[in-house]
Amino acid sequence: MLRSWPDGIQVQLLAGGCRVVDRRGVELHRSHFAAAADAATLLAAADTALSEIALRRKHGSATAVVSDHVALTAIVPWQAELTRPEELQRYGAACLRAHGLEDPASYLVHTEFRTYGMPGLAYALPVGWTQALVDVFGTHGWRLQSLLPASPATFFSMRRLPRHGVQLNLLHDAATCAAMLCDHGGLLCHDVEPVIGNPMGTLVRLLSRMKANVEEVSAVRYISMAEPGRDIADCVASLWPAARMEADIAGYGLGGLSS
Prior knowledge:
Elements: E1 9-14, E2 17-22, E3 27-32, H1 39-52, E4 61-66, E5 72-76, H2 85-96, E6 107-112, E7 120-126, H3 127-139, E8 143-149, H4 150-157, E9 167-172, E10 176-183, E11 186-194, H5 199-213, E12 219-223, H6 230-239, E13 244-248
Helix pairs in contact: 1-3, 5-6
């Protein structure tokens, strides 16, 4: 789907919770549910949220961000010779095979490079589930204009960073932890770790891999439905003592932190 942020609402369907915010990041709805990010749970959460705000918001355009757990996402090396949409789609599908994409025809695949000459992201969302979500929005009078997994939504909306320093974007919900390392030029690294067992153990494994890619980080942007706990802040500080850590509770393209 086309990426745009209209003067409407954004629905954030994450593992463990749902939020609805307006374009300024003002929260209109928040709900929590079981951590499992299965398709039926997220569709039901969207239906409930849109029903709740019906009396307070006129119908119109909407965007949605879904948990990385629902999608497949892969960093893709720059390819200058690929210019047509169908070429980029096939290239993205090829890169996503290593991340579990077995039947490209059953997924909506999109590939995009944010910065010339730098790596981009490819992502895939199940066709049937995507259409079901579009139908839920339509039932409540909303036109779903943009649908993105959490990592691409964050990456494509980031402001350009200063020439010096590296920023770590850490996205955290009940099912996945995702991390993106970015500098002034663009995306350096992206990785996702499913939450299995101890959530802190998941976070430590992911951040240890990030540390192996980049020794020094100047800023950490933590994007979640809740402020980071002391254990998360301590984990980050143990790896990058000089990094400035800030929480971005709105996140996902709503004017978040620019380091």
